[in-house]
Write a structure and sequence with these properties.
Length: about 350
Amino acid sequence: MKALFIGGTGNISTAVSRLAVAKGIDLYHLNRGKTETERVAGVKTLRADINDVAAVKKLLENQQWDVVVNWIAFVPEHIQRDFELFAGLTRQYIFISSASVYQKPLLHATVNESTPLKNPYWKYSRDKIACEDLLMQYYRESDFPITIVRPSHTYRNFIPSCFGFDHHYTLVNRILNDKPILVPGTGLSRWTLTHADDFAKGFVGLMGHQDTYGHAFQITSDEQLTWNQIYNEIGAALGKTPKLVHVPLDALVKYTRENGGSQAEVVELIGGLEGDKLTNVNFDNSKIKTFVPGFEATIPFREGIRRALAWFAADASRKIINHQADAAMDRLIAQWQKTLK
């Protein structure tokens, strides 16, 4: 099987790339080569900016693919571009959507691929829905062989959080130094974290699978944890008990505005929380298990977070602290605690 990944060096796609190569897939990455990333042995790299259609067409001239996967398509214009580039040149096109596209607020806590797609809170999700709609149009009207994949919160070499941190070491540093951690809401909403190595097993099973054309698949762990449990599990791996401070979403919105946050920042805050991470959700993975027999997520968060921490520990240069985010967390917690006095 000959496959092209547009992107391919990110959090999820690196794990998928490694497994694809291990399975004997002839894998190419198309990217600009400007980001320092982990190299995956056995992957051939093609240098180009996917947005430069003329250059990509020339680079890929006379190439045929069994699978093309775009890891970095976010708006319908990206889908239109890819259709122009790959229609007739690939036997399967896989689009990376998002589990955040599902109905918000949920009318039923159990989510599967037939759950309605509607997210009024988050533009990111609405753009992904628009991409899916356009792909289905291409499938119906032009026989473009599409498969849609909807990951949820998938991690590997970073520390998952609900709010306020990037993928670096800032959250861990706060826990190690007994600094409080802001948790939106009560921390009791149930969430699903999926290790990228588990996700890869389901994803690679879909590659080249002709029965998946026109279908969408979610690929997640079956483990559910509250955000309180997630933070406490991180603390347990560090030998510490995190000091959790629960702040209502409406207070976070108020403080963001008071601290000079733009309307766009407020909308993104609400979108990422009310439109995603504060939703109680139970993913039903029956479909991926039917199409990829034997698929099972086997890495619980208790193990996965220890793998992530070991990755940071292996190289001190990875322990990057975002001091701006750290100071913002201190400020928000101080504002909330003033209201409690």
